[in-house]
UniProtKB/TrEMBL annotation:
<comment type="function">
    <text>Catalyzes the reduction of 1-pyrroline-5-carboxylate (PCA) to L-proline.</text>
</comment>
<feature type="domain" description="Pyrroline-5-carboxylate reductase catalytic N-terminal">
    <location>
        <begin position="3"/>
        <end position="96"/>
    </location>
</feature>
<comment type="similarity">
    <text>Belongs to the pyrroline-5-carboxylate reductase family.</text>
</comment>
<dbReference type="InterPro" id="IPR029036">
    <property type="entry name" value="P5CR_dimer"/>
</dbReference>
<dbReference type="Pfam" id="PF03807">
    <property type="entry name" value="F420_oxidored"/>
</dbReference>
<dbReference type="GO" id="GO:0004735">
    <property type="term" value="F:pyrroline-5-carboxylate reductase activity"/>
</dbReference>
<dbReference type="Pfam" id="PF14748">
    <property type="entry name" value="P5CR_dimer"/>
</dbReference>
<keyword id="KW-0560">Oxidoreductase</keyword>
<dbReference type="InterPro" id="IPR028939">
    <property type="entry name" value="P5C_Rdtase_cat_N"/>
</dbReference>
<dbReference type="InterPro" id="IPR000304">
    <property type="entry name" value="Pyrroline-COOH_reductase"/>
</dbReference>
<dbReference type="InterPro" id="IPR036291">
    <property type="entry name" value="NAD(P)-bd_dom_sf"/>
</dbReference>
<keyword id="KW-0028">Amino-acid biosynthesis</keyword>
<comment type="pathway">
    <text>Amino-acid biosynthesis; L-proline biosynthesis; L-proline from L-glutamate 5-semialdehyde: step 1/1.</text>
</comment>
<protein>
    <recommendedName>
        <fullName>Pyrroline-5-carboxylate reductase</fullName>
        <ecNumber>1.5.1.2</ecNumber>
    </recommendedName>
</protein>
<keyword id="KW-0641">Proline biosynthesis</keyword>
<dbReference type="InterPro" id="IPR053790">
    <property type="entry name" value="P5CR-like_CS"/>
</dbReference>
<keyword id="KW-0521">NADP</keyword>
Length: 265
């Protein structure tokens, strides 16, 4: 089987590799990263071998995932651009870098898949937006890409012009959800609930509410209305959230990450 390689083995690559280990064997993969000790630890824990250099990793992989921070990409381009060929499939998870930036950075003769996953991939519940030029890839490659991205959660094919927006919906949004869970727990602790119980209840409420959106197909507003009894307790909280600019803050956060994409290169 063609090898899947990773350059960079941090939060996201570890999450993706964990998913892939359910579908592929450790010998089907290879990786390289910046710290020898960390590489040895990952190899010990997963059985996935590591390469001596990024160039060596790139040489051995048919599917090569670039999983370093955007700021490190130019350096990695320099190390691998004489090694990669158009027979390989280059997969980027970097924010801000377009298919054309990546192709150019790698010397112009490569085929690139741009994706935006998120950290819930670590528990098999990732959400990844993916884009590529379908005409450039074989059916076998497309099937492998589907297997790869669905091994750690859900994937949706999107047009490249939407990829920076997808960053808000998939990549960044878990941070906002954790902030919401933390704040909700703080509010409950303030009124007497034990801290750990508050986290468990808040997290389960988020999980259940997300399932309601996905499984009932109902509009989120309708689901919210089902919770708000007339003259009840929830609508008091909804009014307080509106006063605090809850929805407007989230929309502004999406604008902030959308704009930041343009300043990452
Ligand atoms: N963390 C997140 O929630 C998400 C991150 N991303 C993207 O994933 C990419 C990686 O992000 P994280 O995993 O969060 O970062 P990270 O900092 O956890 O991992 C980056 C890895 O690259 C390694 N590295 C640094 N310099 C290197 C070099 N010259 N050669 C090889 N490896 C090198 C580091 O040792 C580290 O293991 C970024 O491009 C980011 O935009 C995408 C979606 C979500
Ligand atoms: O903060 C970032 O830039 C990365 C990309 C999306 C989530 N984390």
């Amino acid at each position: 089987m063609a090898k899947i390689g990773f350059i960079g083995m941090g939060n996201m690559a570890t999450a993706i590799m964990k998913g892939l280990l359910k579908e592929f064997s450790p010998e089907d993969m290879i990786f390289s990263s910046a710290h020898e000790e960390k590489m040895e630890q990952v190899t010990r824990e997963t059985g996935v071998p590591h390469a001596g250099s990024n160039a060596e990793c790139a040489r051995q992989a048919k599917y090569l995932v670039l999983a370093v921070k955007p700021q490190v990409l130019p350096r990695v381009f320099g190390e691998i651009k004489d090694v990669v060929t158009k027979d390989q499939v280059i997969i980027s998870i970097a924010a801000g870098y377009t298919i054309s930036d990546l192709t150019e950075g790698l010397g112009g003769q490569v085929r690139v898949v741009r994706s935006m996953p998120n950290t819930p991939a670590m528990v098999g519940e990732g959400m990844t937006g993916v884009c590529y030029d379908e005409a450039l890839f074989t059916q076998e490659e497309k099937e492998l890409l589907h297997t790869l991205f669905t091994s750690f959660g859900k994937m949706e094919l999107v047009e490249e012009r939407l990829m920076d927006v997808v960053g808000s919906a998939s990549g960044c949004s878990p941070a906002y959800v954790y902030m919401f869970i933390e704040a909700l727990a703080d509010g409950c602790v303030k009124n007497g609930l034990p801290r750990q119980m508050a986290y468990r209840m808040a997290a389960q409420a988020v999980l259940g509410s997300a399932k309601m959106v996905l499984e009932t197909g109902k509009h989120p507003g309708e689901l919210k209305d089902m919770v708000c009894s007339p003259g009840g307790t929830t609508i008091e909280g909804v009014a307080a959230l509106e006063e605090g600019g809850f929805r407007s803050s989230i929309i502004k956060a999406c604008d902030a990450n959308y704009e930041k994409n343009k300043r990452l290169k």
